[in-house]
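User: I'm writing a tutorial on reading structure tokens. Could you give me a worked example: one chain, its sequence, then its tokens, then a sentence or two explaining what the tokens reveal?
Assistant: Sure. Here is the example chain.
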Amino acid sequence: MLVIKRNSLNQLVVSVSSHKTLANPNYLFSFEHILSKEKVRFFPTNISTSTNRYDEFEFYEGQQPLNTGQFENVPFVLFPYPGQYYYSVYEMFNTGTTNPQYAFDKLEEGRAYVEDTSIENPYTYTYTSSNEQNSNYIYYKPGTNNPEVLFKMEQLDGFNAYGNYWNWNYLYPDSVIEDLTTGETLRIENNLYDIDDCNQGYTRFSGESQYKKIVTGTTSNSTRLKIYTDPNQITAYGYGYGDLSNLPPYITGYTYSNFRTITPGPIGWFRADQNALYDDGTTGNTTNKVITTNRFILPSIPISGNTTSYFQSPSSVYTGYTYDSAGQQTSSLKTIYFNGQENNWTIDPYSGQTLQYSLTKCVQTPSSQTIYFSRNVGGINYIGSGDTSGNFNFIGVYVPVTPTPTPTSTITPTPTLTPTNTPTPTMTPTPSPGPAFDADAAAYLSAVISAGGSLDATISGATNTLFTSLKSAGLYSKLDTLYMMIGGTSGSTALNGIRTNSQFDITWTNPGSMTFDYSGATGNGSTTYGNTNYNPRNESSATDTSWGIYHTAGNFGANNGETYSFGAFDGTYINNHSHPPGNLRIYGYNVGSNYNIGNPTDYNGSYISTITSGTKALYHNLGSGSSLSGSSAPGGSAFLVNQPYYLFTLNLNGSPYSGNYFNGRIQHFFNGNYLTPSETTTMMGILNTFETTLGRNLY
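And here are its predicted structure tokens:
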């Protein structure tokens, strides 16, 4: 019998070399708990110095620490229970799998015993007889009465939704069921099957079911499960989290707790609290999961393929009209295939990426002449070209236009009998693409779609007009950030429209409690805010700076003026926008240098603050239609705060100003260089034109 001690370095002595057939086999040890039938399989380190009579192997039973130290060359293995196991030793060709069905031969079998000295003695209550001449001891431990239920943990056959694009060429990672209460772990080994279209990989996997006892309820010994796909194997086998159907953060697993019966309900039906785990360390909201004792279906964890690159399509096969160099359509819908890359050219035309394409699946077949593809996404025509070398290049985006019909020539009858030649009819020219989108506007719109946002022709056209108008007025080059809050998602509203400064994209906190829609982003007034990552001290100058914000009134100025639509304070200097009682105020740019500008009754609207040497001004167009503006001397040396601006609250030296969150809606926000009074008026007009075009203007 093999004896294994928990949380210890163990040496196993077996006799396998004398029975082997392979010249240099790898020895797989397989253990099966006699009662639960749970299996533990691994390759221990071979430490044999002589194999004439026996072989020696070494491993560490226990959880692997971050720093393995002296045990870095031995595997760490967790046995789910103490007690007796059946064991077998197999000779394997390699260590790529722990499934014995791929073994060359079984070399030894027997029993093993796992002992755990750390388990609490169950006899913890001692009764001592009053008869000291003949003391008797009764050992007793009060028990708990939490119902314990046996569940069948079932791994449904999984399929690759993108099997004709991303396949699985190697081993598929195990599904892991970890009991967070007891530390016990179950593994379901998954096997690949179903060869893909190009005969280069697999598109499906399956695994055997396991059984797990679950303690229901919410007491300290109630079961809490964590179910996930083995992250070490994901990395080792060349996979990654996520697939083409979702955007980051990616789900890495789920936790389950508070198992309880459904009352009234069928026998064997339960509910559990389910929470998704993400690769950025966050946890999703709690949802109710219905399970049954005879079918606890493991959740699907999306992972990308590990295929080598060859030409296949996404599940939605890309088709488009082809054109020649003169812009004439040359064929009906045509399918193209990409070389192991995501088909994202329609939503990311200015990424600078060049893809490889093929006119046939699996093997590259370039076109014999340069072809051009057009595809409409969100009211924008995206144009790409495929050259004769098999490279697919982004060209640009165009606004679709309706061609103006050419009038048909009228034939005037000749009054004489002399026949008149019929004039040659004028050919209607083939409509050419509309004016090209501004490249920076197109880059922003593409990023919005990539972030999960939604666009239409109105938003796309208004955005293009916004960018071209700013450039024509000489204002675009003065901007560091321009958050236009479009797309209707947390990801799209976080984007800095100046994509060359994408490092200033907003990082939202508690976005699930915010509202993101066509009109912009709205806070909840208690826990939500956004970090612009824009530090004015680092990115601007106290004699050459500006900001602008467009928002609804909400609770702006509540709590005695302590509720800010945005701002930052580093302990010495403060820059923000506030409304203390009786005044609308830009506070800063240096402490004690605030500028009060009256007490309007309507705080919906646009605010722009700008400062240069000797002059500071706040301009405001109110939702009621009236406007306030003015300027004053800054009142001493101006300094900018050394903290990034937060939206929906004040950045109080690196933390949100607790209890002072803005619950209004912000529709745009910008930072940049100083604006003259005339430039400020122009800027305010261009931005409000954009808001008006989208139907979300406040004045």
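What the tokens reveal: Residues 347 and 449 are 6 Å apart (CA to CA). Residues 677-693 form the longest helix (17 residues).
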